[in-house]
Specification:
With 246 residues, the protein is of the alpha/beta class. It has 10 helices and 8 strands. It is 43% helix and 15% strand. It binds 1,3-dihydroxyacetonephosphate.
Length: 246
């Protein structure tokens, strides 16, 4: 039985004051049956480390460098994240693929760099609306994931995968539970062929998850939780989604 995982992706939102309020709300609502984590902007990670210390609410970053160290202005290494106690790093989010020209090879390198320091990469894959309409969904997500699997080789079983259809992100247009399940089953089969133990891996769905649609999504056999954007910014909304994963 896989334990569900619900991760908030704050994106470029928050302030020290609003984060403190959000985190204290999350802490006050414990215990959770599901695993719960928040991925905050880099400047707030040390606040997360302090505020969440000793609790089972985990925290992560929204990106990580593919490099271990060196002259890479503006980048943050997995070693730096690990030093703070960071548990997760989102890699290959569609916003980074689209606005920062990240390709599959870079995403795979970032996933490898994270794992090398014990930070679990949450590897995002997903098709655009154009690709879905052209019937290319499976081909696109399998290609995105295959580059990561190939690069990680025997460590591929240690990642978390998030299926985030680009057309569902921030649009209020969620994939139906059935649409999401079809893709999750494809991804799990691909992971299983590579690792032999994808039955133990967690596959999250992301894209306009809200309190009122979370339960139906999370009750699909291959959906092990969610990666939540907008609805992770208010404690009550995010807590309701975490409860829907129980
Ligand atoms: P929304 O939940 O705001 O659609 O964002 C999803 C997402 O991109 C999470 O990484």
């Amino acid at each position: 039985m896989r334990r569900k995982l619900v991760v908030g992706n704050w994106k470029m939102h928050g302030s020290r004051v609003s984060n403190a309020e959000l985190l204290s709300g999350l802490l006050a609502a414990r215990p959770y049956v599901a695993d719960v984590a928040v991925c905050a902007p880099f400047p707030y990670l040390s606040d997360c480390a302090v505020t969440l210390a000793g609790s089972d609410v985990r925290w992560g970053a929204q990106d990580v460098s593919a490099h271990a160290q060196g002259a890479y202005t503006g980048e943050v290494s997995s070693e730096m994240l690990a030093e703070l106690g960071c548990r997760y790093a989102i890699v290959g989010h569609s916003e980074r693929r689209a606005y920062h020209a990240e390709d599959d090879a870079l995403v795979a390198a970032k996933a490898q760099a994270a794992l090398a320091r014990g930070v679990t990469p949450i590897v995002c894959v997903g098709e655009t609306l154009e690709q879905r309409d052209a019937g290319q969904t499976e081909e696109v997500v399998k290609r995105q994931l295959s580059v990561v699997i190939h690069r990680l080789a025997h460590c591929a079983g240690e990642i978390v995968v998030a299926y985030e259809p680009v057309w569902a992100i921030g649009t209020g247009r969620t994939a139906t539970p059935e649409q999401a399940q079809v893709v999750h089953a494809v991804l799990r089969a691909q992971l299983h062929a590579a690792t032999g133990h994808a039955d133990r891996m967690r596959l999250l769905y992301g894209g306009s998850v809200k309190a009122d649609n979370a339960r139906a999504l999370f009750s699909q056999p291959d959906i092990d939780g969610g990666l939540i954007g907008g609805a992770s910014l208010k404690a009550a909304d995010f807590i309701a989604i975490c409860r829907a994963a129980e």
